[in-house]
User: Which sequence fits this backbone?
């Protein structure tokens, strides 16, 4: 792991709080950090039980330190931090954290943890400025106290913009919230999520909600009214995972207010079926919707063709469509236009070659799609040949996944390879199952690397040899990539030909000339490092 860049504030905290020093992490996207950049407090590594009291004291003092008060806005707590401490010590840490830094935090994250509902509710009450709450694989126990959580969300977090909670299973005797009993096949004893949704709907600033049960059919929404409340709130980005929805539920979700609408809707393993999907299509949601995810929702061509029809509407703004793991066939693909889509996932659908070839034909005229996932679609080399034809004219597709299609052979990949070598300099990633020909795999990887790492089209189009040298050969030398170095030399032989000779008498690059150019590239690369 590369060393973290430091700032005066970061260094000060590390020096003055040695037990917490490994928890400070500058938040930045570049190597250069300004002094006023924020610092994350990441509690991930196990706390030592013998030093626990001293660690709590440092945490208390941290809340009074001017650098911490001005820079720490985010706290992340991972389960490993509690590997050596007792449950009582966990509660003490949460309480101290809330008292010390809670009032200043805008982002708080728990990961892979079990926590009592009263403890979380009390902690949230100390964080009035919180904007992002992330509970990743978290089990909340003592569900008879759930009203405390709902009250804290509704009344104590007036600035919350993002709420993310994915559930982690816990023993039944601990009464985990929203977890069905192992012997409850009908899920009737599972507490419904309605009060949580209604509480979230009343947060005026909330824009993004992610709620995931830990297994299919693991969550339960009892009434459509809860979803209607959420639809008429300010939430524009909604994700529900492993929570089955009835047509009445879907209809309620589509009853958005007149002044806002969903821009992203993800219903994963929601079992909405064709009826639910058609309700979405008929709602007019596509006018503002940018992303739609309906994987494992029991869709057939009936709803697939309806979705395709909505995409043909010139007013649609949909950019992402994910319908993997359904029951769609070639009929869906043949009715689909890709005019607005940038991402399409049709994996785990029995499309076969008729569907694959239909998508390839659409790609010849599409100008926006950059990512296509066709994982396990029962396609063969025929689809590869059709995709190869599409690659000849398509200059926007950057990523294609054809993995786990056993009937795609070396011959099919070679048809794609041909256009990658001679005409398509845009495709950056092509995932296929292992091939019999190692040579074909290596050639494919090499050409994709040229596109991905060097922007091959831009380099080859450079007319000035010095620019070509610096952007192609020098970059290859800097990355210790000899294969790419010799590729660019081969594509620009005039770099090492004798310029005094007329073109008709110039000889191909000699080994000595290639070595000279390579050394020059090495020298330039060394100067820039």
Assistant:
């Amino acid at each position: 792991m590369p060393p973290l860049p430091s700032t005066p504030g970061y260094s000060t905290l590390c020096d003055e709080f040695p037990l917490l020093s490994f928890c400070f992490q500058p938040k930045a996207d570049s190597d250069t950090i300004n002094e006023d950049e924020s610092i994350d407090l990441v509690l991930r590594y196990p706390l030592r039980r013998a030093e626990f009291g001293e660690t709590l004291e440092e945490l208390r003092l941290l809340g009074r330190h001017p650098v911490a008060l001005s820079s720490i806005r985010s706290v992340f707590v991972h389960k490993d931090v509690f590997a050596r401490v007792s449950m009582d010590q966990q509660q003490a840490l949460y309480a101290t954290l809330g008292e010390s830094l809670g009032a200043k935090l805008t982002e708080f994250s728990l990961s892979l943890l079990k926590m009592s509902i009263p403890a979380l509710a009390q902690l949230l009450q100390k964080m009035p400025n919180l904007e992002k709450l992330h509970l990743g694989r978290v089990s909340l126990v003592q569900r008879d106290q759930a009203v405390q959580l709902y009250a804290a969300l509704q009344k104590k977090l007036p600035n919350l913009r993002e709420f993310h909670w994915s559930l982690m299973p816990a023993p039944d005797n601990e009464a985990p919230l929203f977890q069905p009993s192992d012997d409850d096949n009908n899920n009737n004893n599972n507490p419904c999520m309605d009060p949580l949704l209604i509480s979230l709907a009343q947060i005026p600033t909330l824009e993004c909600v992610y709620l995931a049960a830990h297994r299919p059919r693991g969550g339960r929404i009892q009434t459509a009214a809860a979803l209607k409340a959420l639809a008429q709130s300010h939430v524009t980005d909604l994700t529900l995972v492993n929570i089955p929805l009835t047509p009445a539920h879907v209809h309620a979700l589509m009853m958005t207010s007149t002044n806002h609408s969903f821009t992203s809707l993800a219903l994963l393993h929601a079992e909405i079926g064709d009826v639910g999907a058609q309700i979405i299509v008929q709602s007019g949601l596509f006018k503002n919707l940018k992303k739609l995810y309906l994987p494992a929702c029991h869709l057939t061509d009936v709803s697939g063709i309806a979705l395709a029809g909505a995409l043909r509407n010139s007013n649609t703004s949909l950019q992402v469509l994910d319908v993997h793991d359904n029951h769609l066939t070639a009929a869906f693909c043949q009715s689909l236009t890709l005019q607005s889509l940038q991402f399409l996932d049709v994996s785990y659908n029995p499309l076969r070659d008729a569907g694959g070839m239909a998508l390839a034909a659409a790609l010849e005229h599409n100008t926006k799609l950059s990512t296509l996932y066709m994982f396990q679609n029962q396609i063969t080399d025929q689809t590869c040949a059709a995709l190869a034809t599409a690659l000849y004219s398509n200059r926007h597709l950057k990523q294609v996944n054809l993995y786990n299609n056993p009937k795609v052979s070396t011959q099919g990949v070679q048809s794609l390879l041909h256009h990658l070598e001679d005409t398509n300099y845009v495709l950056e990633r092509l995932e296929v199952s292992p091939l019999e020909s190692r040579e074909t795999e290596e050639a494919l990887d090499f050409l994709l690397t040229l596109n991905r790492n060097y922007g091959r089209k831009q380099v080859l189009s450079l007319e000035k040899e010095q620019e070509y040298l610096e952007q192609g050969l020098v970059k290859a030398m800097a990355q210790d990539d000899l294969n790419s170095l010799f590729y660019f030399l081969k594509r620009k032989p005039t770099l090492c030909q004798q310029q005094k000779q007329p073109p008709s008498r110039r000889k191909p690059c000699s080994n000595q000339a290639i070595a000279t150019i390579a050394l020059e590239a090495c020298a330039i690369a060394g100067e820039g490092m």
